[in-house]
Please model this.
Amino acid sequence: MKQKQIDIDIKFKFDLAGLKNIIKKTKLCHIITDFEKDGIYSLMFACEDEHMPKLNNLVAHYITDFYINRYKKYYLESNINLNAMEKMFVPAYICAITSFDNFTDREIALEADFTLNKFSVIPFLFFKLPDLLQRWRMIINLTNDNIQCFDKPTAVIDLLCYLVNNQQNKTKELDVCFEDRGIKIYNDNKLSFESKSQDKSDIGDMIAVLIKLCPQKLIIHSTNSNSHIDTLKKIFKAKILL
Model:
């Protein structure tokens, strides 16, 4: 029988906790448990030798998803200085660069050896995936070195438009509804975002959600024309349907 232990900083506990349920569903493990100690959340499991390759592959893809979909955003936010950018566009920019070329990020991450009997998720990234971190640091350096160029909304909108055009579509179609006071975003009739007003903060969050969901088509519903619709047209351009 083989055993495996995966450790992660306690603040990312719930990002790793989901792996426990996924492993349980495989029904390949005799033992699976988790515990917390000294600010670390640990997941442990044991299985017959022949099942470990399948479970290692499952772990590799799960941890890779964590790096790309969760930690990348955390790392970029922690190291990028966006003080010169209008605050309304900061969430959208972070979402856009977090989603930028994730396909290559994923390929690099999956080349790592996740078969170790014990490893810590964050140190593993820093010591075993230097090429992935180098890509992220390049984004950080490019942003920090050129942030003064994006002190005007028009420049930020052009940048967001470029990043959106280079994203892979994640959803087929989204509906954005500007109501009398708030905003709603629907994905296949399911509510994905709602605000009670249309102030700059809400508009910024709305744009960030749209970029994160990255639709192939964006349908806008509004009884009145407003500058926010013009902003969406400029960012999403060919995706827009009115």
Observations:
- DSSP finds nine helices and nine strands in the chain.
- The chain has a mean pLDDT of 92.
- The radius of gyration is 21 Å.
- The first helix runs from residue 13 to 26.
